[in-house]
Amino acid sequence: TAFRRTPGEFAWRDPELPEVIHMLQHQFPSVQANAAAYLQHLCFGDNKVKMEVCRLGGIKHLVDLLDHRVLGSSEECLWCPSKPRFWQVYR
């Protein structure tokens, strides 16, 4: 993170991309929804990150979430299919 801390003080860190993709398979739907939302944030306008998500298998997990009946995780996943060019490139 971008803030300073003293020794012994707890500090949050941003999760690495593989961790976020792994969270898409978490047992709690709220964690899945937050991971999908965070991926949306990371991928917005960044083709390099989109390619890395694809390489790490994230697309499959996002598509799997589309079938979930839990409100939230499915809605967060909808950002990906709405980008037709992305799907054409990574099919």
Automatic annotation (TrEMBL):
Keyword Repeat attached: yes
Cited InterPro entries: ARM-like (IPR011989), ARM-type_fold (IPR016024), Armadillo (IPR000225), Plakophilin/d_Catenin (IPR028435)
GO cellular component terms, semicolon-separated: anchoring junction
Protein name: Ps1ly2h-25 protein
Location in the cell: Cell junction
Protein's organism: Homo sapiens (Human)
Organism domain of life: Eukaryota
SUPFAM superfamilies: ARM repeat (SSF48371)
